[in-house]
Amino acid sequence: MKKIEIYDTTLRDGAQSEGINFSTSDKLKIVRLLDDLGIDYIEAGWPGANPKDEEVFRELKKADLKNSKIAAFGCTRKADTKPEENKVLSMLLSAETEVVTIFGKTWDFHVEHALCTTLDENLNMISDSIKYLKEKGRRVFFDAEHFFDGFKNNEEYALHCIKTAHEAGAERIILCDTNGGCMSYEISEITKKVSDSIPDIKLGIHAHNDSDMAVANSVSAVDAGAIQVQGTINGYGERCGNANLCSIIPNLQLKKNYEVVGDKIHDLTFIANNIAEIANVAVPSNLPYVGMSAFAHKAGIHASGVRKNSQTYEHISPDSVGNRRKILISDQAGTASLREKMRNLRIVKDVRDEDLPKIIERIKKLEWKGFAFEGAEASFELLILDTLTGLPDFFKISGFRVIGDTFIGEKNHNIITEASVKVKIDEHNIHTVAEGQGPVNALDTALRKALVEFYPEILKYKLCDFKVRILDSKDGTAAVTRVTVETTDGINKWDTVGVSEDIIEASYMAITDSIMYGLILHNPDIDF
Question: Which of 71, 147, 238, 436 pairs as cysteine with 175 (C-beta 3.0–4.6 A)?
Answer without folding.
Answer: 147
